[in-house]
Amino acid sequence: MSRRQVGSTRRFVDTGSFPFAGSLHSKSRSSPLLSIGLILVGAALLICLAYGGSGIFGGNKIAVSKVEGDFLCTSEVQRAIPLLKKAYGDSMRKVLHVGPDTCSVVSTLLQEEETEAWGVEPYDIEDADASCKGLVRKGLVRVADIKFPLPYRPKSFSLVVVSDALDYLSPKYLNKTLPDLARVSSEGIVVFTGFPGRQRAKVAELSKFGRPAKMRSSSWWIRFFLQMSLEENESAGKKFEQAASKKSYEPNCQIFHLKSYH
Ligand SMILES: *[C@@H]1O[C@H](CO)[C@@H](O)[C@H](O)[C@H]1NC(C)=O
Ligand SMILES: *[C@@H]1O[C@H](CO)[C@@H](O)[C@H](O)[C@H]1NC(C)=O
């Protein structure tokens, strides 16, 4: 996956360099003092390439480090919102997102028509920006340790979406947290988890999360969901797949569609 990212970076740079080459030609032809002109143009070109290059690379480096970092699945949730709308339609009216960087997801969801959104941030948000602090002040986003019961009544939300949070829990805590996510939802739970072997938390982040993320295989999760009596919502999954293939969307995370308890 990170390899594909690098590939797309390269294509970006290739196409990006054509305009610079073009401007070099036109400028050198119109310059009366050819040699000085050439030197200036050469310098300008170098600066352009350095800036353009670092801009392009810099931009992609953020994407790549996100891909390899911890919030991969939270950014995946953002990307998947239009597909989730297709799959869940009316069930998207009251959404709870649980996961790091939840402010970004909540803000995006709030832009959708007919969607109310709340968020639970499992880690700290000391470095939150003003808009995130605003969401916390309004009570839309809460900081809560998801090892303990969530501070909401049963079936408070139509849909609960969780990302980058369950990977950090041992089975002992998962046994409590997952049923609790089901408890506060009425029409479904969507779980975004990392693919095994694809990403790991940066060393500096380990202390923050308490333990390293453990990326489990899809068969591990499916077995776990069954133990918790959480069934897959096949119809939602199918609708999601259909919408995804129409948009050539390939998720960077595993996505599970589960039914709430009845
Ligand atoms: C989690 O719950 C399942 C089923 O209730 C049980 O079989 C399993 O031993 C539990 N695991 C842990 C680590 O508590
Ligand atoms: C399954 O998902 C659909 C949305 O595609 C939803 O309307 C339905 O309520 C869900 N079924 C259950 C049993 O949660």
TrEMBL record:
The chain crosses the membrane at residues 33-52. It comes from the Eukaryota. Keywords: Membrane, Transmembrane, Transmembrane helix. PANTHER family: PECTIN METHYLESTERASE CGR3-RELATED, S-ADENOSYL-L-METHIONINE-DEPENDENT METHYLTRANSFERASE-RELATED. This is Pectin methylesterase CGR3. It comes from Eucalyptus globulus. The lineage of its organism: Eukaryota, Viridiplantae, Streptophyta, Embryophyta, Tracheophyta.
